[in-house]
Description:
Blueprint (H helix, E strand, L loop, with lengths): L1 H34 L4 H12 L2 H12 L5 H26 L2 E2 L2 H24 L1 E2 L1 H20 L11 H39 L3 H13 L1 H12 L3 H26 L2 E2 L4 H20 L1 E2 L1 H18 L1
Antiparallel strand pairs: 1-4, 2-3
Amino acid sequence: MMGEKMIYLLFIVGLALLVGGGEVLVHSGVKLAKKLHLSPLVIGIVLMGCGTSLPELSASLTALSATPPVPGIAFGNIIGSNISNILLILGLSALLSPVRIERAGFRRDGLFLIMSVFLLGLTMWFGYLDTIIGIFFILFILGYFVICYDKEPEPEDLHLTRRKEISVLIYSTLSILSIAAIVYGADLLVASASKLARIWGVKESVVGLTLIAFGTSLPELTVSIIAAIHKHASVAYGNIIGSNIANIFLIMGAIGLIRPTPIPPLWDSFWVMVAATIAMILCGLAGKIPRWMGALFLCVYGFYIAYLF
């Protein structure tokens, strides 16, 4: 019994590190980006989106490095995180504060989002993620970052005074420490969640799609809720788009380069992710996500979790 209590304790500690690291990351990351004259759109998509995708990356690589490897957790985490990002986190954000979307920036980001989902489905149909495909995914995410940067206006002043240099150093250090907390928290979360799954008698793929996916999405939840409360819709929505794109391109690419592996046929959840992505894109074309749509997203997410169990 003492061992089981310790597992629950490690699970809670992992969650705490993820949430705490995510909150520090959004505050220090935004301040750092402003010191470097980056726009809110770049803050939301590149810095916050990919920064908060680190738990998914760490969790998936940890699952594939286990003995024996558990690809159900690794790939279930990717798909489940994208589902929870849209239906749970974006839905809750819209319920708190209706999200207004900048259509011009969305056309670019929506295209990459569609490409990422299509290529994920194609790779799942192929059944194996190898090094060549991994390189292909990495090139896509790098291209996305370059396009995001090129589309942004030139900064007015890049000169850093001595005082600004010190501020940049402080915020950079805080950002690095928060990312380290996120990664370590994800490791604790995966290890403890896998043991809890065996205790509860739950399938590993279901654990990846639900428990671990939710746990590794907590930084996105923290970032988006804070942004929604402060009426920063571009950061909240951009965070979800950037995170979902990074979850596929960055994590699939890293897995292909580091741990080439067969992909389990998680088609039911894949099609749920496709439907959620289409709904998100339609909201982007409409330019807003009203409160009733947020409530609908949350209801659909509840039905999906019930279906899995």
